[in-house]
Specification:
This protein is an alpha+beta fold. Helices cover 46% and strands 12% of the residues. The protein folds into 5 domains: 4-35; 46-177, no CATH class; 195-241 and 570-689, no CATH class; 246-257 and 435-564; 295-413, no CATH class. It is built from 25 helices and 15 strands. α2 crosses α17 (425-468), α5 (95-110) crosses α8 and α12 crosses α17.
């Protein structure tokens, strides 16, 4: 009988992997659970505090769990009413929103807003269209009484009461935004449509910091303590001394153009012909010629364009054309033209067999009296099927009663086996080769990436076994040689050393790559997941390869080799950064003063360039002309909110800069900081394009698409809500003891 040691040796590899997994679970999972005890403040620390209140870990866990329960209750209620729960918008279930709801509910209470039980029942009636009876609500809640978190009707009502109170406060705040008055719409129109050309002189704060003296070390320490838990942000006006989350990574990149050019050489003529024969019906059918545009056709296009402009912005698709039924089409035409003399019809070019008809622009050639009479006496049994009617409609001669047998050959649809129906192989051969090369390149890259992924899976397993052994017996396993793999497979390799997410994205390449992930909540059924979102996630493991691609079609396989969580350094470690940040903050008044002097000198009909030409002291300055640029830049996709413009030649301009520019008249001057307040600009407005008079003509033009203004208005409304919530949090002195979790 085999001893236990022999059994261990037989299953050594699997058992060591199991032990390694248990060790990792003990390291990562047990500490949070051990901290969630209820023994005292030490085991149940404060997560966030505000004036008059606080929330501990245990309360936060219950608050987040209760939000999940409330969402499920609302979904079950919708389902019970017979509506589709998948179309309902859920409440956010992250810690930040839970605390924010609590503060807004307190703000509502302070302003006399009360949500009674009757108000909650009224909301539930509206939520379910009064289709759910009280006993059904009781049954829904009863299903939540079991399991790890038992809830009662009172629990659900209290959670809903806070959410409704917070929502009412938001609606009270938004009452000032209702209607978009004409003056506000004009301002939104200006921000989108009017460009400004300016002359600027940037005064960098750092060029003046030598004149700033450092305070005592005690003052610097207080300054450090104020911002030691804040992460640095490129556009933030306040410093941050916390070290961000950084990682190290290695990667392989397959350049699309290089791989495709290499495999394209191996594409044979036989492969080209085979692909063409198999796919010509789908890819290389000759497109029908566009119909010649007549006066009626132009009218139809104009009416169709007007109809399309009137479609709702949310739909963003033209209404389906309404084609008159066959039995109604011909008699209607006959009645219309019966009193008119028949006109000779000129021969027309062949038109496609499918006609898109807009009812308001429906036109038909005049029919002769004989044809009109025949059409008027036609019986439903004589009417051709709809499909045949469409084909007949495509023949212009039929509209004047010409027998179908007299149709010209060009009017007859091409047959499937007619060579003239397809583009010749010689014309599309290059396209075929490119398609074959793209397909072959994708297969080659897939094979290489799959093999490398398997190699790293084996390495990760060996590493876990080695780490599980006592004192790491034996030599440490070595990872696959990335450079050797890249050289052998015609790829490129790279390495990132201790980079933050922002640094990686700014560097481009791998940092800006992405992958598509299935997402049922997305209208498209999937969403784009960025590389930094994947590798910086708390669940992202070391040595686990992730495949991504960039907009140019290049593909990446990357894996994290080191992970350094965010942390707050000591004062001694961060002292040089603290001193620099202090000088920048204190140097801002000096930069503004210098910019104001320049603006004043240029205000008497001079230019800023002439104002700096006479300077002999101070930092070296230069004038530049920038523009024209608008306040807001249109989004790349229709319906998306516009963003603040970022003109070339300016360093991170923000709202303060744009407000200063567009408040000027040509020739006037102003000063404004950029968004992070590291540069103060002296500004002189050169010109607006178009000028105010022409812009007003465009504003009142009935042809202007007002939906762009509506999108900007909603965005401004959202920004105002965000600023208001930030103000509420400041007034309540909200402080997070740790970063809120999602």
């Amino acid at each position: 009988m085999a001893g236990s040691f022999e059994i261990f040796r037989k299953y050594q590899r699997s058992l060591l992997v199991f032990v390694a997994i248990l060790a990792m679970l003990a390291f990562f999972v047990l500490p949070p659970f051990l901290q969630m005890g209820v023994g005292g403040a030490g085991s149940d620390p404060v997560v966030a505090s505000w004036s008059g209140g606080e929330i501990r870990e245990s309360d936060m866990m219950r608050g987040v769990a209760m939000r999940t329960v409330l969402n499920q209750f609302l979904l079950d209620a919708v389902a019970a009413s017979g509506r589709d729960p998948g179309r309902m918008r859920l409440l956010p279930d992250d810690e930040e929103d839970v605390v924010r709801t609590m503060l807004l509910a307190k703000e509502a209470e302070a302003n006399g807003v009360v949500v009674s039980n009757a108000a909650i029942n009224q909301f539930l009636g509206e939520w379910t269209n009064n289709m759910v009876r009280p006993e059904q609500f009781d049954a829904i809640i009863a299903r939540r009484r079991g399991g790890p978190m038992a809830v009662s009707q009172a629990d659900v009502f209290e959670a809903l009461r806070s959410v409704l109170a917070a929502g009412r406060m938001e609606r009270l705040f938004l009452t000032g935004f209702a209607g978009d008055p004409p003056g506000q719409r004009w301002e939104y129109f200006r921000r989108l449509e009017q460009g400004a050309t300016v002359e600027v002189v940037p005064v960098a704060v750092e060029s003046l910091v030598e004149a700033v003296s450092l305070p005592s070390e005690a003052t610097l320490r207080n300054f450090f303590d104020q911002y030691k838990n804040d992460l640095p942000a490129a556009r933030s006006a306040t410093p941050g001394f916390k070290e961000p989350h950084r990682i190290s990574a290695e990667y392989l990149v397959a350049k699309r153009e290089v791989i495709e050019a290499e495999v394209r050489k191996d594409v044979t003529e036989e492969q080209v012909k085979k692909f063409y024969d198999e796919n010509k019906e789908r890819l290389y059918r000759v497109k029908a010629a566009e119909p010649a545009e007549t006066e009626d056709g132009a009218a139809a296009k104009g009416d169709a364009a007007d109809a399309e402009k009137k479609t709702d912005a949310a739909e963003q698709k033209p209404a389906e054309p309404a084609v008159p039924a066959a039995e109604d089409a011909k008699p209607a035409a006959a009645d219309e033209k019966a009193t008119e003399p028949a006109k000779p019809v000129e021969p027309k070019a062949a038109v496609p067999s499918r006609l898109w008809v807009v009812p308001a622009a429906f036109r038909q050639p005049a029919a002769d009296a004989k044809t009109a009479a025949a059409a008027a006496e036609a019986k439903p049994a004589d009417v051709k099927p709809e499909a045949d009617a469409k084909v007949e409609a495509a023949k212009p001669d039929d509209a004047v009663g010409k027998p179908s047998g007299d149709a010209s050959p060009s009017d007859t649809p091409a047959k499937k086996d007619d060579p003239a129906a397809f583009e010749p192989l010689e014309k599309v051969a290059d396209d075929v080769r490119n398609r074959l090369a793209s397909e072959a390149a994708a297969k080659r890259i897939d094979a290489v990436f799959t093999a490398v992924t398997a190699d790293f899976a084996r390495y990760a397993e060996d590493l876990a076994l080695w780490q599980a052994q006592v004192a790491g017996a034996g030599s440490r396993p070595q990872p696959p040689n990335v450079e050797a793999i890249a050289k052998k497979q015609g790829l490129e390799s790279g390495r990132l050393e201790r980079v933050s997410a922002g640094d990686a994205v700014a560097a481009g390449g791998l940092g800006t790559s992405f992958e598509l992930s299935l997402d049922q909540n997305s209208p498209m059924g999937f969403r784009q997941v960025s590389w930094d979102e994947m590798v910086f996630a708390p669940t992202a493991s070391l040595w686990r390869p992730a495949g991504t691609r960039d907009v140019a079609g290049n593909r990446y396989l990357s894996w994290k080799t080191d992970d350094q969580p965010a942390f707050s350094p000591t004062f001694d470690k961060a002292k040089s950064d603290v001193e620099r940040a202090w000088k920048i903050v204190e140097g801002r008044p000096l930069a503004r003063k210098l910019a104001e002097e320049l603006a004043k000198q240029a205000g008497d009909g001079k230019t800023l360039e002439s104002a700096i030409a006479t300077r002999t002291e101070g930092p070296k300055l230069a004038a530049a002309t920038v523009g024209p640029f608008t306040w807001m830049a249109r989004a790349g996709t229709f319906g998306a909110a516009p963003t603040l413009a970022q003109p070339d030649g300016l360093s991170m301009p923000g709202e303060e800069f744009m407000k200063a520019v567009f408040a000027l008249e040509p020739g006037q001057t102003a000063v404004a900081f950029n968004e992070p307040r590291t540069v103060c600009y002296a500004i002189r407005l050169v010109a607006y394009e178009p000028d105010q008079e022409k812009l007003r003509e465009q504003f009142v033009d009935p042809g202007f698409d007002q939906r762009r203004i509506a999108v900007l208005a909603r965005q401004q409304e959202g920004d105002a809500i965000g600023r208001w919530i930030e103000d509420v949090e400041r007034r309540y002195a909200l402080q997070w003891k740790r970063s809120p979790r999602r």
